[in-house]
């Protein structure tokens, strides 16, 4: 059974309505599905998209425990219970892949344009071992599809939308159209999104314009033995700003291919297999969108390429509620990044030279019961390898950089290790109350930036803290010991799902001072870092950390069609080895929505409040932030079958505020001072129309 969270507005301004709470799951393994269309009281929810922002991360961030760090209009990084970036298992249609940009300008949800998103599923707490390694919870964005029809005759299907918002004169249009019968389905998807620089109460945030196009085809076939699905998709992101990072997006040319098959080998033995490919070609620079550097020698362009293959084969023996699952999977990724100066052909350097990463894993998982207690217990083993090639470096680079290149060439650039994950979940249905418990050991292998960044430049894997980093080939995998407990309660039209959790993380990867004399420039690393604007560089190192907190979603019907729903989140994250906090952790926050939905129309008033955050990372130079509260208003009208009209206003009172997870502005000639935390958008009206046949 699936628990579906349903927003009253298709633009996801409203908190999820919860008449669906009467159908809340008793099984904590269920997915929470964030959707945008109001289907109050309907257990089978048809999803819609949210047009409030162009970034799907903002939709997923509405979950309790979740948030998003906006490095740019299309570069939002998810955070869930204090974990971000590749510590979370984020997929598109079940496909795993690595971001193409070394600064994470294209986190996975960059490839889920909201006009094409059907739903976003979120694993509670931790992901099951069958989905692969990952330190925290998992997100899977499901794109729209043409479903199979019931008869032999082909029928047309379409799910289309178009929308506009005032804060950046942004608009989007897209969807899917195709034909299907009971055996075959064919679909064509496409979307276009663009917007100008975003406005806030004191002016304009320069370098926040964006442009993105996506198009593709999909097909499926099913027989009595099972189903096979194919998808080809290409995405072209044009000039798009990232004011919290040292460069902007010139382009992403990305192609995805995915094949997925589900076969019934016998009545009790089932096979699920998939193969995927992702090809990324990317360029970024510091002069096309933002003001160019004063000196021609400081112009920079970085060219990046990445090719990734994934695959898995898994078997399930038994039924959905009682079974043994086992399988194997693999990932390979081949990438490189070269920094150039367009004004000097002799300036080039491979900052990430020919990085090849491979993983091969296998898992075993059991699901059954111990009397009244249901359980799922699984373990997985993964073998990891990562290598780097010898970097090329231009003759005009300074002697200190040449020395670092030679040191990296002479070093051992091959790394390999094994990891073991274990997840055990238990729950018991006791009438209206379902207590649940999760115990887990989860791991994460450091990425290419953390391990092989030999050149001290402002590449941080999306941290956006302004520091210069270098990597460490000998980094150990992160290991998290996790405990989570909670209760699911529902009674009539009311529900509440509180959770508390604790993560003790050994060998957490964190930036630390490069040496024991920070500020004293006496090494080649510090010399090059100083030229790049940071006299106190950091190096990625293994430290000890802990993260704990609680979150809650709740709601109840007040009277007739009037409901109140809400979420609350608290997370605390800090180092265990020294007295410091982890970087960029969301402060305590609460959302409350009051919804009136008497028939084909609905109206929602939402309040969002964040506390101040003064638990900040001294190591990363993080600034504290103030608390704030904003209000949103949205409505939806759906009297015409298949057509939905939505409209509303975000930040109704045009309040100026800067979310704690926002990055720091690095763009001159903006109404936001350079080095200041980037503010949120001002008052923004929106309208959207959707059509489904």
Automatic annotation (TrEMBL):
A Pfam family assignment: Plug
Ranges in a coiled coil: none
Signal peptide start-end: 1-21
Keyword Membrane: yes
Keywords: Membrane, Receptor, Signal, TonB box
Family: Belongs to the TonB-dependent receptor family.
Record localization: Cell outer membrane
Domain TonB-dependent receptor plug positions: 54-138
Domain TonB-dependent receptor-like beta-barrel: 210-652
Main location: membrane
Protein name (Swiss-Prot/TrEMBL): TonB-dependent receptor
């Amino acid at each position: 059974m699936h628990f579906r969270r349903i927003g009253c507005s298709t633009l996801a301004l409203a908190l999820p309505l919860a008449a669906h709470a009467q159908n809340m799951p008793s099984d904590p393994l269920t997915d929470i599905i964030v959707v945008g269309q109001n289907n109050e009281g309907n257990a089978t929810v048809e999803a819609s998209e949210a047009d409030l922002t162009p970034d799907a991360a903002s939709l997923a961030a509405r979950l309790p425990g979740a948030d998003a760090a906006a490095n740019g209009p299309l570069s939002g990084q998810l955070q869930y219970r204090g974990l971000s970036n590749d510590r979370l298992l984020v997929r598109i249609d079940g496909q795993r892949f690595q971001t193409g940009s070394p600064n994470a300008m294209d986190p996975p949800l960059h490839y889920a344009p909201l006009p094409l998103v059907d739903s976003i599923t979120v694993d509670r707490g931790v992901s099951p071992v069958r989905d692969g390694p990952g330190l925290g919870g998992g997100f899977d964005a499901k794109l729209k599809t043409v479903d199979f029809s019931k008869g032999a005759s082909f029928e047309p299907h379409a799910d289309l939308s178009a929308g506009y918002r005032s804060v950046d004169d942004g608009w989007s249009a897209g969807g899917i159209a195709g034909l299907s019968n009971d055996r075959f389905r064919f679909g064509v998807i496409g979307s276009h999104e663009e917007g100008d620089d975003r406005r806030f109460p004191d002016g304009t945030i320069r370098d926040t314009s964006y442009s993105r196009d996506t198009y593709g085809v999909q097909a499926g076939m099913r027989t009595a033995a099972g189903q096979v699905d194919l998808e080809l998709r290409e995405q072209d992101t044009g000039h798009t700003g990232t004011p919290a990072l040292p460069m902007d997006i010139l382009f992403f040319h990305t192609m995805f291919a995915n094949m997925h098959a589900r076969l019934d080998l016998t009545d009790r033995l089932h096979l699920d297999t998939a193969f995927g490919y992702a090809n990324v070609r990317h360029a970024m620079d510091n002069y096309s969108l933002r003001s160019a550097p004063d000196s021609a020698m400081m112009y920079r362009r970085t060219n990046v390429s990445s090719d990734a293959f994934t695959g898995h084969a898994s078997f399930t023996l038994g039924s959905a509620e009682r079974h043994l699952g086992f399988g194997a999977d693999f990932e390979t990724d081949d990438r490189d990044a070269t920094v150039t100066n367009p004004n000097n052909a002799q300036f080039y350097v491979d900052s990430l030279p020919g990085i090849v990463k491979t993983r091969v894993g296998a898992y075993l998982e059991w699901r059954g019961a111990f009397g009244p207690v249901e359980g799922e217990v699984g373990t997985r083993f993964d073998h990891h390898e990562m290598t780097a090639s010898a970097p090329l470096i231009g003759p005009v680079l300074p002697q200190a950089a040449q020395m670092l290149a030679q040191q990296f060439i002479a070093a051992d650039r091959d790394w390999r290790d094994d990891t073991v994950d274990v997840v055990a979940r238990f729950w018991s249905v006791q009438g209206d109350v379902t207590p649940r418990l999760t115990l887990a050991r989860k791991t994460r292998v450091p990425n290419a930036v953390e391990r092989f960044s030999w050149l001290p430049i402002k590449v941080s894997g999306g941290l956006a803290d302004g520091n210069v980093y270098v990597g460490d080939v000998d980094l150990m995998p992160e290991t998290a010991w996790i405990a989570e407990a909670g209760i699911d309660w529902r009674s009539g039209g009311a529900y509440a799902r509180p959770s508390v959790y604790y993560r003790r993380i050994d060998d957490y990867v964190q930036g630390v001072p490069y040496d024991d004399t920070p500020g004293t420039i006496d090494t080649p690393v510090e010399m090059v870092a100083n030229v790049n604007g940071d006299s106190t560089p950091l190096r990625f190192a293994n430290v000890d950390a802990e993260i704990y907190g609680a979150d809650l979603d709740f709601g109840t019907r007040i009277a007739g069609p009037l409901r109140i729903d809400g979420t609350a989140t608290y997370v605390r994250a800090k180092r265990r080895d020294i007295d410091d906090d982890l970087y960029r952790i969301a402060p305590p926050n609460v959302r409350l929505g009051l919804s009136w939905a008497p028939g084909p129309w609905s109206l929602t008033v939402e309040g969002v409040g964040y506390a101040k955050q003064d638990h900040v990372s001294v190591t990363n130079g993080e600034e504290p932030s103030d608390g704030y509260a904003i209000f949103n208003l949205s409505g939806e009208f759906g009297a015409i079958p298949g057509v939905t009209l939505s409209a509303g206003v975000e930040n109704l009172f045009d309040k100026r505020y800067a979310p704690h997870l926002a990055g720091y502005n690095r763009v001159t000639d903006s109404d936001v001072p350079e080095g200041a935390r980037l503010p949120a958008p001002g008052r923004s009206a929106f309208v959207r129309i959707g059509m489904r046949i």
